[in-house]
Specification:
about 40% strand; alpha+beta; about 30% helix; Alpha-Beta Plaits; 8-stranded antiparallel β-barrel; single chain; about 230 residues
Length: about 230
């Protein structure tokens, strides 16, 4: 019976000083995060520009955290000085709390997500994380082909939020998205001709040296991003 929960927090910075601070915290936040009680794993990540653009969005950083329990996550977000420091320096903060439904593949050699024993059968919303390491010799071909398909996310009416994330620009890429339902997510993935073509290319060209796909049930959302909130109701 797993009580594991996952949080992903997006911090948006608007001043030059705060952007420089956030950039350096990609390194300096690691030591205090390693000491946080109940935090199993964490991933400090940059983000990409809109439309699955591989160029960095220097205004936004993401922190993915995997917790032993909701209680330990709550304690961190309510009292830890590191989180308070991020909030003070940010113009906006958006945090999504999730429970894992299913995950397959590997992230840095392991699958860190455990299926939750506390899923709500009445909650239809789906959050998805796809993460991959692109083979060095295929990076140029990948970034020429894949962003075209991702532009059509703008036409997916059931998509509530999406953002490109990753640890190393161009090499480690990931996407985070929230959908109104699993059916809506699947419908886009397999009925949109541009996205379907990208899936076929991925399988035939074998872009990745490592990949992971995970589905979650989002159950709490705090804050806003670009002035917009995400309603789970």
């Amino acid at each position: 019976m797993s009580k594991q929960v996952t949080s992903i927090t997006f911090f948006r910075f608007t001043t030059l000083r705060s952007k420089i601070w956030a950039f350096f915290m990609m390194q300096f936040a690691r030591a205090p995060l390693r000491k946080v009680r109940g935090l199993e794993r964490f991933f400090l990540m940059g983000t990409g520009k809109k439309g699955f653009n591989p160029n960095p969005d220097w205004s936004t950083y993401a922190l993915l955290q995997i917790w032993n329990s909701q209680e330990e996550a709550d304690y961190y977000f309510s009292s830890h000085p590191l989180y308070s420091s991020y909030v003070r320096n940010s113009e906006e903060v958006l945090r999504v709390m999730m429970r894992n439904i299913k995950a397959h593949g590997a992230w840095n050699g392991v699958n860190p997500f455990q299926k939750s024993s506390q899923l709500d059968p009445e909650n239809p919303y789906i959050a998805a994380i796809t993460r991959a390491t692109i083979k060095t010799r295929l990076q140029l071909k990948f970034w020429r082909a894949v962003p075209y398909a991702q532009r059509f996310l703008d036409t997916a009416t059931a998509l509530k939020f999406t953002k490109g994330i990753g640890e190393v620009p161009f090499r480690n890429m990931a996407t985070f998205s929230i959908w109104e339902s699993e059916e809506a997510m699947r419908q886009f993935a397999y009925s949109d001709k541009h996205h379907k073509k990208a899936i076929v290319q991925t399988r035939s060209l074998n872009w990745y040296s490592e990949e992971l796909f995970s589905r979650f049930q989002p159950y709490q959302v705090y804050g806003t991003y670009l002035g917009q909130s995400i309603e789970l109701s």
